[in-house]
């Protein structure tokens, strides 16, 4: 009599064995780590940006000239007193981080055990992120470079060879990621300058003669505590912007190391550990920011 149990076990294991063979001993864990860190950065950055927008609104009120409010309210201005589009600048960074998070998630699906439906969903999410980034005012050259990577990912789901698909997608994406990092570096520098400006405006306001109560009074103590808390918030926002900028600059090099590891499984990926650690630091900074 034939023992059916071993046959059933082999039959049940066949899809898994075929999947592993298609992956070619692909280490999907590093792509999962990239996905999780990118998501963490994306979420933490959104909260950090909300804190920056609140500080900007407070600064606009604090430094407003002595006039009637009017319909314009308290517009944001830069150091030269010119209108400043903070939401536009933040929108570019937010859309860029969203794209990187979607791209990292798509790579993880392709590298892991994601089925055709999962990979197709990741491709759709990535396309949506690219459209959002294009709508944020990103330069045409950067958008075109990233669009080619999205197209490559769309074709990747048609093949069972995951490692070959990853190679093709990542090779297409590398130039666009490098251009994106350069463009976002300029935006980050602009945001840092703006944060410095509103910090200095705040200091000029609190240092005006007569602004602070008499030294030694309880009111002076309470007021100075509020000033110290605000300065600490400015410092956390500055460090959060630094961390976000650092991660965006590091992404192309990390991506290159991951791509090279597909050809050399023993290659060290130092950037991945740094990327994950920085994501954790950013999350701790976000938690320390005041709720809006």
Automatic annotation (TrEMBL):
Source organism per UniProt: Chromobacterium sphagni
Entry superkingdom: Bacteria
Keywords from the named record: Signal
Name of the protein this chain belongs to: DUF3829 domain-containing protein
Signal peptide stretch: 1-21
Lineage: Bacteria, Pseudomonadati, Pseudomonadota, Betaproteobacteria, Neisseriales
């Amino acid at each position: 009599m034939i023992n059916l149990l071993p046959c059933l076990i082999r039959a049940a294991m066949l899809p898994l064995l075929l999947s592993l063979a298609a992956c070619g001993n692909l280490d999907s864990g590093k792509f999962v780590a990239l996905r999780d860190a990118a998501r963490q950065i994306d979420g933490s950055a959104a909260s950090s940006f909300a804190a920056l927008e609140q500080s900007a609104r407070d600064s606009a009120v604090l430094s407003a000239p002595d006039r009637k409010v009017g319909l314009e309210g308290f517009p944001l201005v830069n150091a030269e007193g010119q209108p400043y589009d903070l939401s536009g600048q933040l929108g570019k960074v937010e859309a860029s981080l969203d794209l990187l998070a979607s791209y990292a998630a798509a790579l993880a699906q392709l590298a892991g055990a994601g089925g055709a439906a999962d990979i197709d969903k990741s491709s759709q999410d990535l396309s949506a992120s690219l459209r959002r980034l294009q709508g944020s005012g990103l330069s045409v050259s950067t958008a075109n470079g990233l669009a080619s990577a999205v197209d490559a990912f769309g074709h990747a789901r048609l093949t069972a060879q995951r490692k070959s698909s990853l190679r093709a997608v990542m090779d297409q994406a590398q130039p666009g990621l490098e251009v994106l990092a350069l463009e976002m570096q300029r935006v980050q520098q602009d945001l840092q300058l703006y944060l410095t400006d509103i910090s200095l405006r705040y200091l000029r306001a609190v240092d005006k003669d007569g602004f602070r109560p008499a030294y030694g009074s309880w009111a002076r103590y309470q007021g100075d505590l509020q000033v110290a808390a605000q300065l600490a918030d400015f410092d956390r926002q500055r460090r959060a912007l630094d961390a976000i900028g650092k991660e965006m600059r590091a992404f192309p090099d990390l991506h290159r190391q991951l791509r090279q590891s597909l050809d050399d499984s023993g290659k060290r990926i130092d950037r991945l550990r740094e990327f994950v650690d920085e994501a954790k630091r950013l999350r701790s900074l976000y938690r320390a920011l005041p709720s809006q």
